[in-house]
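Contributing new records

If you add data, match the layout below exactly. Sequence lines come first and carry their own label; structure lines follow with theirs. Keep one chain per record. Anything else will be rejected by the validation script.
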Amino acid sequence: MSPRSFRPRPLALVAGLAFVGLALAVPVASSAQFLARETGLDPAILAQGVWIWKAATLLLGILGMVADGLRPGEVEASPLLERGQSAESPPNLRWNLGVLAICCAGLSLRFHDLGAGLWFDEIDTLVRYGNSSLAKAVASFETQNNHLGYSLFANLSVHAFGASAWTLRLPAVLLGGASLWALWRFALLVAPSVEAAFATALLAVSWHHVWFSQDARGYTGMFLAALIASGAFLSMLWSRRAAGMKLPLVYGLAASFAVWMHVTAVFVVVAHFLIWLWVAARAKQSGANRWPPLWGFLFAAALSLWCYALVLPQFVATLGGPSMPGHETQWRNPMWMVREMVSGLAAGVPGGWLAIAEGVFVLGLGLWSYARQSLAVLTVFLLPAALTCAVIVAQGHNLWPRFFFFSGGFAVLILLRGVFEFIGLCARGPLAPLRMTLSKAAATLLCLASAATLPRAFGPKQDFAAAAEYVGAHVPPQSVATLEMGSLPFRDYLGLYWTQIDDLQGLMDFERQHPETWVVLTMPMHLAATQPETWARLESEYREEKVFLGTVHGGEIVVKVRRAP
C-alpha cells in the first residue's frame, strides 16, 4: 500500500494552520499572570504550563495537516487480525429502538435521588473547582483528587445551574447514560446481538454503574471513552480497507478523553499499543494494514498532552510520589483490593457469597469462550486492568477498586457470555432446541436480580448534613472539633466553624479547654492509618455517640464524646 502524494484537504489545512497560529499568538507572560491571579499558583510554574500548551497546540496543528496529507487511498489491505467471530447482519431498527429504550430507562434511574448527600471527594471537587473560576478548574492540579476533565464539566454545570449536589453530578449522569449505548455498540463488535442487548440491560440496572453515574468524578467518562476507544482499536485491527483517518481520529479523540477524565486511562492506551506491536509483529501477509493504529496512538498522545499541558508541571509533582508517604496502610495491598471488590459485589448481588462463587465459575466459562474466539479481544478486555494494577502497586499508590471501574463493561460481556455458555452445557439432549430460549430466560433473571439491588445505590454517599444537624442539636459549636478529613465537609462546605485538630497534642489541648469534648470524624480507617496515636486515644477515652452511614464503604461519619471525670 503506497500513500498518496502529500496533499491535505482545504478544511484540514485551514484547521491545522489555525492551531499553528493560535500557538504562536498566545503570549506566555501575560497568560501566566492571569492564571496566577485566578489560581493563586506560582506564575513561573504556570508559565511552564503555557509554554507546554503552546508546543502541544503547534504539534496538533502540524500532526493534523500531515495525517490528512498522507492519508491512504481507498485500497484493499489485509487485516492485521481476523475477527474470530462469525459474521452477523447488523441489528435492525427494532433492535436499536429496543436497546435505546433500555438506555433511556437506565438514564432515568440515574436521575433518581440525584441530590442525596455528597461524599468527601465530591465535596473536594465542588469546593476547589466547582465554585471556582473556569481558569482554576483547567490550570490547577494541586491534588490527586482532581479529575481534570470532570472538574471542567462540573465547573460549567455549577455555574450554569447553581451549586448543588445534582448540578455537580449532572455530567456523571449524562456520561453514564451515554456509556450504556456505547456498550451496546462495542458489544456488537465482539458478541451476538442478543448477548449485546442483555449486556446493555444488565449494565442499565447494575447498582454499581448507577452509583458511579451519580458520583461527581471522572469514572463514567473514562468508562464511556474506554469502550469507544477499544471499539475503534479492534475495528482498525480488523479493517480490510485503508480508507483515511476516520478510525484513527475517533480512537485518538476517545482515548485522550478517557485520559482527560482520569489519568489511569493511559494504561488503556498502553495496553492497546502493546497488543498492536504483538499483532503487527506476527502479521506475515504482505500489504497488512499496519499503520492506522499507529496514527491513532499519535493522535491520542498529542491530544492527551494538549489536555494536560497547562497543569503538566504541577501534575508530575502531585502524582509522582506514593500515597500517604510514611504511613503503612493496607490500601496498597492488592489482596485488600481483591477482598474489597469481592465483598462489594457480594453485598450488591442476591445470594451474596454463594452467588459470587457461582459467578466465578460462569466468568471462567465466559473467559474461555472469548479466548477461543480471539485472544486479542480477550487481551483488550484484561490487559488494561492488569497494567493499571501493576503500575499503581509499583509506585506505592493506594489501590482503590474504583480505578478499575472502566473494565466493568468488559466484565459484563464476559459474564453474559458465561451465562450463555453455561446454559449451552446444561441444555443437551431433549433440551437442545430450547437452548436459546433458556439462555434468554437465564439472562433475564440475572437482570431482574441485579435490578432488585438498585435501592443500595441510592441515598447519601456520606450524610454530613445529618451529622451536623445532630451535633448542633446537642452541643454548642465551641465544644466540637473535627479531625483530618472531617474538616473540609463541615468547615469549608457546610460552613460550621468547629475547631480543626491536626494531631494528638491538639486534641489533648482541646480536651483541657472543654470538659465535654465532642469530636466528629469520617473515614476512620484513614485516621487510624495516618494518626495511630490520636486514633488510640479516641478509642480508649471517648464514647461513640452516633454513627451516620452512607453508601460509601468505609465512609461512615462517627461522633465521639469525652466527658471529663
